[in-house]
Design a protein that fits this description.
about 160 residues, 5 helices, 6 strands, about 30% helix
């Protein structure tokens, strides 16, 4: 897939996986989120390898991230969206979501999926709504998957090196 980049002043959004600061992304997701708390770095690397990724950079510093899981013809899942706290309030999240929604490989999809308990106001601007038929949806969810003793020990070692 062709790498895309968008620029605004000293900010860049890029789909180039080689630009991603995996350690920075891991530090934020593993420590600052409820949805990926404790995620092992190898799990994160695998998720990035198998996704369409959008890195947000100030100059060359990773300040935000989002990824898409998709078949590129019928459905896309938007996940792991974040902007570092000190860069919020500058319209960057709106710009990031807009770049995702306008990506040429994500056009004409029948369904987009997003799980969130924050920033609903942002996603509603892009057409996301509450489920019209939540009774049709099912899930298999393991909220403790990253909390095993082995994963916590590995995470502590990784974070102590950073």
């Amino acid at each position: 897939m062709k790498i895309r980049e968008a620029h605004r002043n000293d900010y860049t959004i890029s789909t180039d996986k080689d630009r991603l600061d995996i350690l920075s992304i891991h530090k934020f997701l593993a420590n600052e989120t409820d949805w990926a708390k404790g995620i092992p770095i190898n799990t994160l690397k695998t998720s990035i390898e198998n996704s369409l990724n959008f890195g947000l950079f100030y100059e060359n510093k990773q300040i935000g991230f989002a990824r898409i899981i998709s078949d590129y013809s019928t459905i896309a899942y938007l996940g792991d969206v974040y902007i570092l706290k000190e860069y919020r309030g500058k319209g960057l999240s709106k710009w990031l979501i807009n770049e995702i929604m306008e990506h040429p490989n994500l056009q004409g999809l029948r369904r987009w999926i997003l799980l969130t308990d924050t920033a609903e106001w942002l996603y509603k601007k892009f057409g996301f709504t509450d489920l019209s038929n939540p009774e049709f949806y099912m899930e298999k969810h393991n909220s403790n998957v990253y909390k095993t003793t082995d994963n916590l020990s590995r995470l502590k070692r990784i974070n102590s090196k950073n």
